[in-house]
Amino acid sequence: MTGVRDQWAAGSSYEDFMGRWSRRLAPEFLSWLRIARGVHWLDVGCGTGALANAVCSHADPASVVGCDPATPFVEFAREHGRDARQSFVIAGAGGLPRRPGGYGSVTSLLALNFLPDPEGAVREMRAVAAPQSTVSACVWDYSDGMLFLRHFWDAAASQDSAAAALDEGKRFPLCRRDALTALFRDGGLGDVRCEPVEIRTVFASFDDYWRPFLGGTGPAPSYVASLGADRRALLARTLDEALPRGPDGTITLGARAWAVRGTVNR
Predict the structure, then answer these.
(1) What residues are paired with 64 via a beta bridge?
(2) Domain that holds residue 164
(3) φ, ψ for residue 153 (rounded to 5)?
(4) Is the pTM of this model over 0.85?
(5) Which of 1, 61, 87, 142 is 20 to 30 A (C-alpha) from 221?
(6) Packing angle of the helix pair 219-226, 147-159 (nearest 10 deg)
């Protein structure tokens, strides 16, 4: 089971599973960042376009370039982007798009921990940024702050010991305040700050919670796709019994992310 690999095959499946919460988180992250209006942005690991869209709606940019190595995500972002200031390109860390004079804001929403070389990525983000600009990132607190996934992996591990190795809380030690602060300082950035940003994930029913796990895109859905029908049904029953319900049957769970920023001092 430890051979299960994360799949990033479908923009629409990702949108159902995680993109809807990315779109809730993005404005809160931007409010925390407080970037000046009228600057050029680079969105690294743009996924299906949640942050790029939020920048256009809330930060009044000069332009936003979103880049991601996953072609299906970029195609989804292009199809659903409606602002002329946006553009999306297929590119990742190691080949980030550049612009003359650099970008006034270089950022990454919920992608930094998935990059094969986060240290190199932060250095490259700094390199493509303009002098005195801001480099930033935001990642879910998988260990104990992203509760809808915490419930999932705890249930999976209770019936499959191999699932523990796939748990993002264990896989991504970067997603903690001290680790992110050190990453940005070691990347040559000054005035580094790291603080929590929180939203609520509200599911109308258990089906609303469980169905996106069947889409096969992302770590947890990739794990579900690897299971046989009986084990998949057992996992669903275990979760259905464990998740808290409101009087109307809704499932409301907290979701904490860590936001980090630093200044390009050159």
Answers:
(1) 41, 86
(2) 11-263
(3) -70, -35
(4) yes
(5) 87
(6) 30
